[in-house]
Amino acid sequence: MLAACTLCGHRCGVDRASGVLGRCRAGAVARVAAATLHPGEEPCLGPQAGTVFFSRCNLGCVYCQNWQISQEGQGEDVSAEELAGMMLRLQAEGAANIELVSPTPWVPQIVEALGVAAGRGLDLPVVYNTGGYDSPEALRLLEGVVDVYLPDMRYGWGVVADRFSGAPDYVEVNRSAVLEMYRQVGDVEFNAQGQARRGLLIRLLVLPNGLARIGATFEWMAGHLSTATWFSLMAQYAPAHRAEEFIEIARPVTEAEYRALLEQADDYGFENFYTQAPESQDALRPDFGRDRPFGD
Q1: What is the CATH number of the domain that holds 148?
Q2: Which of 10, 9, 28 is nearest to 19 (CA)?
């Protein structure tokens, strides 16, 4: 994989093993910005996820809140042994799972590190938190390795995906990826404590002016997955990084925009979803709730 990288939808084909860098600028050695307990995820991923934040995201979102990590590459290079040690430390500190954030460019390195960690006693569920621009062949490497897939379905329209994330074929790549994830793990299964032990949990980030085309994504999910599929309808968008250069996304989401999507979710018959109050848009630790966290 590293010798001709096709881990994501960009399919650069560069020889990362020899030091050539592709679009995401990821090299041959995993780069990690932080490994910490994180209480702000969906309730079924808590009370504290053991979160490993990787540098060098394969998407270049103009509104990214963590652009210093995702696009500028802040972090430190770590060996497989060091990455495994981070996971084991998080387990010892009481993490409910190991959550890999922006893992797509680092799938080979992650698989190697998980092998080391499992041999040294790691037995937590593995959560794959991705922007959703993953290639099916990369995901097939993870079958039987990842327990919970946590992908974004960021856009329902390629023109918008190109303008704001530089991925004109995002919709096609994303849907193929989500289908592969669903094939592997199915709908979310919970343990006795209500924590996700396996399954697919989708994140839908609401953008201003309906730009994410979430209604189109709802339609696709209902037709290709299940109305029992779990998802988070996220209201936390706030202009960050270069967002103010684009008038369409230079403001937060309104309550009216968010409520309209809740109604659409009901119309399609979705049964299981987390919501956020629009006023949580500036929160670093989003307040997820079930169904209706604000008003009537």
Answers
A1: 3.20.20.70
A2: 28
Q: Is 55 within the bounds of a domain?
A: yes
Residue 200 lies in a domain: yes
* Residue 179 placed within a domain: yes
List C-alpha distances in Å: 257 to 16, 213, 233, 278: 43, 12, 12, 9
7-52 per-position pLDDT tens digit:
999 999 999 999 999 999 999 999 999 999 999 899 999 899 999 9
Number of structural domains (the chain) is 1
Residue 228: give the domain boundaries.
Answer: 34-289
Q: Is the dihedral of CA 35, 73, 178, 213 positive or negative?
A: positive
Q: What are the tens digits of pLDDT across the range 150-172?
A: 999 999 999 999 999 999 999 99
pTM score over 0.90: yes
Phi, psi of 245, rounded to the nearest 5 degrees: -75, -10
Reduced to 3 states (helix: H, G, I; strand: E, B; else coil), residue 231 is: strand
Distance CA 295, CA 259 (A): 10
Dist. CA 185–CA 208, nearest whole Å: 32
Are residues 145 and 114 in contact, defined by beta-carbon separation less than 8 angstroms?
yes
Q: Which residues of 267-276 are buried (b: 16+ CB within 10 A; e: fewer)?
A: eeebebbbbb
E strand segments, the chain: 31-38, 49-54, 76-77, 98-101, 126-130, 148-151, 189-190, 196-205, 230-234, 273-275, 289-290
- Residue 82 lies inside a defined structural domain of this protein: yes
Question: What is the bridge-based pairing of β-strands 76-77 and 98-101?
Answer: unpaired
Q: Minimal CA–CA distance to 103: which of 26, 21, 216?
A: 26
What is the C-alpha separation between 57 and 16, in angstroms, rounded? 15
Q: 123 with 139: CB under 8 angstroms?
A: no
